[in-house]
Amino acid sequence: QVQLVESGGGLVQPGGSLRLSCAASGFTFSRYAMNWYRQAPGKERELVAWISPGGGTTNYANSVKGRFTISRDNAKNTMYLQMNSLKPEDTAVYYCNQGRAWGQGTQVTVSS
User: Which tens digit of pLDDT belongs to each residue from 41-98?
Assistant: First the structure.
């Protein structure tokens, strides 16, 4: 049974940083690309970042390029999202995704 568990969200001031984690289980993590999505209130869920199975290739939404970094540790079955220079418009629930599997989400709120 595939399970994805996010952690690391919270309240941060504009310009601050947070690091999200996604712990995966129930599948061979190192064989699959992984995604981070987010959904802000009243908006559709959007793809934030993607990482290849080995971690050597990444891709980002234009809105976060240069500020967010996706990474993974296949030995720990864990994916990360380092978020720097956070803006109020980054406020959303952030979700870990692989195929049809989704985590429960972790809330990120950027506010002074």
Answer: 999 999 999 999 999 999 999 999 999 999 999 999 999 999 999 999 999 999 999 9
Nearest Cα to 11, choosing from 79, 91, 102?
Answer: 91
Q: How far apart are CA 16 and CA 26, in angstroms?
A: 34
Instruction: Give CA–CA dist 51/53, Å, rounded.
Output: 7
Rounded Cα distance between 50 and 43, Å, is 20
- From 45, 38, 11, select the one nearest 22 (Cα to Cα): 38
Distance of alpha carbon 4 from alpha carbon 23, whole angstroms: 6
Q: How far is CA 64 from the centre of its chain?
A: 11
Output the six-digit token pair for 34. Answer: 């992984």
Distance separating alpha carbons of residues 72 and 49, to the nearest angstrom: 12
Q: What gap in Å lies between CA 48 and CA 25, rounded to an integer?
A: 22
CA dihedral for 17, 44, 34, 60, sign (positive or negative): negative
Of the candidates 112, 89, 104, which has an alpha carbon nearest to the alpha carbon of residue 20?
104
